[in-house]
Amino acid sequence: xxxxxxxxxxxxxxxxxxxxxxxxxxxxxxxxxxxxxxxxxxxxxxxxxxxxxxxxxxxxxxxxxxxxxxxxxxxxxxxxxxxxxxxxxxxxxxxxxxxxxxxxxxxxxxxxxxxxxxxxxxxxxxxxxxxxxxxxxxxxxxxxxxxxxxxxxxxxxxxxxxxxxxxxxxxxxxxxxxxxxxxxxxxxxxxxxxxxxxxxxxxxxxxxxxxxxxxxxxxxxxxxxxxxxxxxxxxxxxxxxxxxxxxxxxxxxxxxxxxxxxxxxxxxxxxxxxxxxxxxxxxxxxxxxxxxxxxxxxxxxxxxxxxxxxxxxxxxxxxxxxxxxxxxxxxxxxxxxxxxxxxxxxxxxxxxxxxxxxxxxxxxxxxxxxxxxxxxxxxxxxxxxxxxxxxxxxxxxx
Length: 398
What we know:
- The chain has helices at 27-37, 54-64, 77-83, 95-102, 118-126, 137-153, 162-171, 204-207, 217-225, 227-240, 278-286, 317-328, 332-348, 357-364, 376-397; strands at residues 17-22, 43-50, 68-71, 90-93, 107-110, 130-133, 156-159, 179-186, 247-251, 257-263, 268-272.
- It is α/β, with parallel strands linked by helices.
- It has a seven-stranded parallel beta sheet with strand order 4-3-2-1-5-6-7, sandwiched between helices. Strands 9-8-10-11 form a four-stranded mixed beta sheet, covered by helices on one side.
- Strand 6, helix 6 (137-153) and strand 7 form a beta-alpha-beta unit.
């Protein structure tokens, strides 16, 4: 059953929302700060957290003046503290400090990349925050735990991924029982029309050349393999309560239609727009309101066609692996995601070929066997074991 997405009442005029950004130095984090800067009377940054780039974090802190900044890497604590000496900004370090920060503010932007973002996202959800969710691993690894925590705390999870934001926007106000299916669109990545027989020769530079979106390295490679779309299928299952057999993927190279919802009466809603991550970020920060912004407008009259096609699962087996993990349930999605993270990293450093990625992912999925999927510790243990399995498989592939 879908969650009830009837929007809450808008905040009183003049109310400023305190925003905490987890993963502030990454792509989504930096774009979030740009969105916040447009609305100084509506949004205020109160906390920033980053992994190890203390220089970028210090620069951000000097610009937006939060109450507190946290660096995950304890070794960078002294450097960050020295860089912010005399500013009055509190400096903290470590995973526990990030989780504590996640329990503050009105809106928590969960944009830490990878499994490291799972516990902070859970902390924000358990605290009943509005969570602008970009960290897909939170739902891929621990979707059932996040769902249960949100039900108990009353947290609102608003997706930041363009496709899930599109679905969210289409579903707001719709009775859950009227939804028949959802369709996630995929650009198809840089190799949509390339002969699969040549995939073994794909270079890192080619795989990082996404035709439509500017994203981080892992997400860009995942888009090239269609694993990113598989992860989004799993996310959608937990965000919207739709089973795997009612979640479809359509390759749409123009990236104008971001996703679609089909209802029981045969009608379909779609959300369209120019590819720009600033839009879904602002939707999440302003929900349930809409605020004016200078993002480019979609001109349908200037587009010759809007094309749609089914994905080629033979050429892009990672998508099929994601569906298989979702159907298997338990720790299978966590293991799959961890193995993919290792495979992508090894492809980027030249250890394995592009065509080895799905083989490594499949090998890592074996780590889900016997894992405890009832708690974060068990799921993260499966994550760690999958990384070891995948690393060994990378050695064999190389």
